[in-house]
Amino acid sequence: MIEDQYELKLSERFPKEMEVPERADILIELSRFGIGSANAIQLIDTTHDALDVRLNYIIDKKWVLRFCNAPDMTEKRMGELNRLIGRYRAMGFLCPAFIADDNGNYLHPWKHSLCYLSEYIDRPLAGDMELNDEEQLTFQVAENVALFAETYRDVDLSETMGMYSLFELSPFDVPNGVDEKQDNFNKLIRLLRNEEEDDLAVRLEIRHTDIRCKLKAVFRELPRCVFQGDENFSNVLIDDAQHFVGFIDFNLAGTEVIINQLVNLAGFDYDEKQTNPEGAKARLDFAIRYFHDQISRMLRIYHATEKERQAMIWYAWIVMVAQWPNFCFFKKAIHDGVLKNEILELLSLIADLPEERLLAGVN
Known about the structure:
By secondary structure, this protein is an alpha+beta fold. The chain has helices spanning about 1-10, 25-30, 75-90, 135-150, 180-195, 200-220, 260-265, 280-300, 305-320, 325-335, 340-350; strands at about 40-45, 55-60, 65-70, 100, 110, 115-120, 225, 235-240, 245, 255.
């Protein structure tokens, strides 16, 4: 029974008071998009909370019928996303397009939700697989994002900003009134002050303010592109040989300063790939070498201007101290106590880090 599948697959985060579509409701909605029948229906519930409900019904491995209550999904937004998906597909990437009904509408109201339909691409997701070479796949994704940026810089920019944006708020930043990196940095400073590390907090604040002022003066002059925006392995499609072939899930897509997108993809690893780091300096040296390796690969494909390369230094400093995974690592290490002194020293080194180190050796 399809009801049993619903019961088994509903997330614990799905609000119990909210109504779930029955099989008959699904068939009615499919018919409104011109689909007359459905055999296999699989529910994947990716609901975050009552304000962000996401029910995804895979229909015969051909389509995905989605029910959500996201306020930012509008006809205009769906049209922007479909144009973006068309650009990815023109480059040979597999990406599921949205389906319009006979009246050209993407969205249908259902109860207290919105309903829309997209294609289903029957390829495995990297996040669901045991990968033979995770690093190589990471390189492939980054290099293809760089190629996309090189091809489509400043083309058909969206009003919706991407999740990495500084100064201009993405839809998820609007409630706080500050961009995510600023919010993360504020949390780090509060953490340090709670630990009575006021001198370190002040040094980081002074450096952070200086760098953001430099970026704010130039970020509107830098080339931009609209990106899928959430290139983690749970959204990466691979082939049987585990090579990158495309993306799903364009909900976080938006306009981004290209060099900022590339810096965020490169990232700084302070923990996962390091083996027995010998103190704060060794940890920082490894993270910078990791960043250099990643960003160099992308800059061989994306031809950055000198102004972009300068801005890349400032974006990189913001990422190394305020990207979400980095903030989480700092917080955990300080609270756990074992690495507390080393991480405080690491943050001290970051506060004083010469700008030229962030680009030295990058091809």
